[in-house]
Specification:
The protein contains no helices and 12 strands. It is an all-beta fold. Strands 1, 2, 5, 6, 7, 8, 9, 10, 11 and 12 form a 10-stranded antiparallel sheet that branches. Strands 3-4 form a two-stranded antiparallel ribbon.
Length: 154
């Protein structure tokens, strides 16, 4: 992960050290067959974003997240958030061929953020779902403003 005052980029590969898993209850004798052992596939995540100062009280942050795993289609998210008067957040996101999302939020105090998110599926699951709703309550318990060297809208 690398970041500056206005930019960030990161690459993640969880479970980089692969392991094998098996279900002991399905073992017959001491032979391990291909049906009882599974190996995890590596998942690759790439994130990036930038903060543009559009005015004295308006910041714009486009961002992207790319997710890749062998044997699955590539997933790509793009988002755009606005920060107004360092208090209000308004944004939207698109997951390629999968979903549209929106977010609104308010920085109530220096350590408390309140928000609401909505995710609308654009796949066949949309026939069975009205989307998902998310309430956001973020506490900054150990916020030490005197130690912030590079405040970011991330």
């Amino acid at each position: 992960y690398y970041h500056t005052n206005k930019f960030y980029i990161g690459l993640s590969v969880p479970n980089f050290l692969t392991t094998k898993h098996f279900d002991e209850n399905s073992l017959s004798g001491s032979n391990l067959d291909s049906e009882t052992i599974a190996a995890e596939r590596l998942h690759y995540f790439l994130i990036a974003g930038y903060v543009f100062d559009l005015g004295e009280n308006l910041k714009f942050k486009p961002a992207t997240l790319v997710k890749a795993v062998s044997g699955s289609p590539l997933q790509w998210d793009v988002s755009a958030n606005f920060l107004i008067h360092e208090k209000f957040t308004l944004g939207a996101a698109y997951r390629w061929s999968a979903a549209l999302s929106g977010i609104v939020g308010f920085q109530a105090t220096e350590g408390l953020f309140l928000g609401f998110g909505y995710d609308y599926q654009t796949t066949d699951i949309e026939d069975y779902s009205d989307g998902s709703y998310e309430l956001i309550l973020r506490f900054d318990l150990f916020n030490r403003p005197e130690r912030v060297v590079a405040p970011r809208f991330f």
